[in-house]
């Protein structure tokens, strides 16, 4: 009784209301903008009580890091809420979730126990084995079965478990929910594979992809109630084409991908979502939106994606999911007619998985130069057998906004744009 009165009082004392923080992966401990934003949206220092959910019997390494960072660095109370298979429908666990003003969902769950079958699987699919988590960050990439395990536990067969329903209650009461963007969608969730394997698997192009491409068509946690496929680690791991393929594969025309150490903070995610891009201080990262509705139909089998519209939004841009309109902060100015560079600079490894964010960099240069298009390539190889790929960007219909980052002694220019067009084509082996 007393505790429910207390909860009510706490909730009335802040009215920021319903925010979903979609993290683009590899969120660094020292990203003050994103961590402070999460604490603020959960009620602020001294008020925020954040439940850190891991799918496991006890707190995971990532869970412990999140708790420690919230508590020691950012002044929020944080408590671990381990959720086992059966715990997902345990009213006691669900009530503990409801008592929080914020929830952070951790993807890195418990490792598979050692048995013969798991051992054989790990030999056949070495990418599906957990690696040592990188230091100083959370929402790092873990084995793909963990993403499946998370969704299967919290939303088995597309039905909300008691714990997921409780998480939605926290949102509806005006709280904050955060986690890796990639499992939050209502639509298909990407599990594995890089852009090249996504482009060529199941097509007439023979290839031996390094990581097989796979998706979960039944969708994710559905905490964003809008038909989008969502990706994380977008620019840094060159996942643009993997996102495109998933859109075509799952009959969803729109998707977006959040860059590493960046977040899209979505207000009213369950009713009228409006997202704002939050980055690390002085970062040029952002969120890329795709629309594949203009692609001609037989494109998957021919690995040919023409006329894919894409937009890129950077720090402080606000995107309204309902009207699909964007509002730029006043410090950014229209680029049209003021392009700084003469030439575009093509990339010779446009789908690189290892950075430095070739797609983002090439598009950013094109929007701020006098040329209208740029043709980039991805190299082919024989061992392993990988075909070459051509990617053309065209900015004829694009509208760009940009400015030097405020407060940056190096005057780094940050650019956003809408409606650039990409065409992707496989060239064959050598
Ligand atoms: C791409 O879009 C443009 C303009 O909408 C159109 O003229 C062109 O035919 C399209 N190309 C393909 C291959 O659909
Ligand atoms: C690229 O733009 C130039 C003009 O700057 C034009 O002549 C050329 O046809 C365009 N190429 C493509 C592939 O659209
Ligand atoms: C400015 O650029 C220099 C040289 O590239 C770099 O060492 C420094 O960290 C930059 N400063 C900021 C604030 O990013």
Structure overview:
The protein has about 425 residues and is an alpha+beta fold. Among the domains are: about 1-180, no CATH class; about 330-430, no CATH class. About 25% of the residues lie in helices and about 25% in strands. The chain has helices at about 1-10, 30-40, 60-75, 90-100, 115-125, 145-155, 160-170, 195-200, 240-250, 300, 360-365; strands at about 20-25, 25-30, 50-55, 75-80, 100-105, 135-140, 175-180, 190, 215, 230, 255-260, 260-265, 275-280, 285-290, 305-315, 320, 325, 335, 375-380, 390-395, 400-405, 415-430. The strands form 4 sheets. It has a 9-stranded mixed sheet, sandwiched between helices. Strands 10, 11, 14, 15, 18, 19, 20, 21 and 22 form a 9-stranded mixed sheet that branches. The longest helix is centred in the N-terminal third of the chain and has 13 residues, at about 60-75. The chain is globular. The relative contact order is 0.12. Mean pLDDT is about 90; it is low at about 1-15. The protein binds 2-acetamido-2-deoxy-beta-D-glucopyranose (3 copies). One 2-acetamido-2-deoxy-beta-D-glucopyranose (NAG) binds near residues 282, 409 and 410.
The major sheet is characterized as:
9 strands, mixed
Report how far apart the termini are. 72 Å
Q: Kindly report the spatial arrangement of strands forming the biggest sheet.
A: 4-3-5-7-1-12-13-16-17
How many strands in all? 22
Structural class: alpha+beta
Summarize the amount of helix as a percent range.
Answer: 10-25%
Bound molecules: 2-acetamido-2-deoxy-beta-D-glucopyranose
Radius of gyration: 21 Å
Mean pLDDT: 90
Spatial shape: globular
Number of helices: 11
Kindly estimate the percentage of residues that lie in beta strands according to DSSP. Answer: 25-35%
- Poorly predicted runs are 1-15
Signal peptide: 1-17
Keywords: Signal
InterPro entries: Class_I_gatase-like
């Amino acid at each position: 009784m007393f505790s429910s009165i207390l909860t009510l009082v706490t909730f009335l004392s802040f009215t920021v209301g319903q925010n979903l923080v979609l993290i683009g992966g590899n969120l660094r401990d020292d990203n003050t903008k994103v961590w402070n934003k999460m604490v603020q949206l959960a009620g602020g220092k001294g008020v925020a009580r954040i439940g850190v959910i891991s799918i496991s019997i006890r707190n995971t390494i990532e869970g412990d890091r999140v708790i420690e960072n919230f508590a020691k660095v950012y002044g929020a109370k944080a408590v671990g809420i381990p959720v086992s298979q059966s715990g997902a429908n345990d009213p006691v666990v669900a009530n503990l979730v409801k008592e929080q003003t914020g929830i952070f969902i951790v993807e890195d769950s418990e490792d598979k126990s050692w048995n013969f079958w798991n051992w054989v699987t790990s030999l056949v699919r070495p990418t599906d084995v957990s690696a040592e988590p990188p230091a100083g960050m959370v929402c790092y990439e873990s084995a793909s079965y963990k993403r499946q395990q998370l969704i299967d536990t919290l939303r088995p067969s597309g039905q909300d478990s008691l714990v997921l329903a409780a998480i939605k209650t926290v949102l509806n009461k005006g709280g904050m929910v955060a986690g890796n963007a990639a499992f939050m969608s209502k639509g298909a969730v990407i599990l594995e594979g890089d852009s090249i394997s996504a482009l060529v698997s199941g097509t007439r192009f023979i290839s031996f992809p390094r990581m097989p491409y796979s998706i979960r068509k039944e969708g994710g946690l559905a905490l964003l109630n809008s038909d989008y496929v969502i990706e994380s680690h977008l620019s840094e791991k060159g996942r643009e084409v993997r996102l495109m393929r998933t859109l075509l594969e799952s009959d969803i025309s729109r998707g977006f991908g959040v860059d590493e150490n960046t977040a899209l903070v979505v207000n009213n995610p369950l009713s009228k979502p409006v997202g704002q891009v939050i980055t690390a201080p002085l970062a040029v990262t952002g969120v890329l939106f795709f629309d594949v509705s203009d692609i001609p139909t037989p494109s998957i089998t021919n690995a040919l994606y023409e006329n894919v519209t894409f937009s890129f939004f950077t720090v402080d841009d606000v995107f309204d999911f309902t009207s699909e309109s964007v509002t730029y902060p006043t410090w950014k100015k229209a680029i049209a007619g003021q392009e700084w560079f003469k030439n575009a600079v093509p990339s010779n490894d446009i789908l690189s998985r290892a950075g430095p964010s070739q797609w983002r960099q090439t598009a950013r240069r094109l929007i701020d130069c006098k040329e209208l298009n740029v043709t980039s390539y991805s190299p082919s190889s024989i061992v392993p057998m990988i075909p070459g790929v051509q990617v053309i960007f065209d900015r004829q219909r694009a509208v760009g906004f940009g400015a030097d980052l405020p407060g940056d002694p190096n005057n780094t220019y940050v650019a956003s744009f809408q409606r650039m067009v990409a065409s992707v084509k496989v060239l064959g082996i050598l």
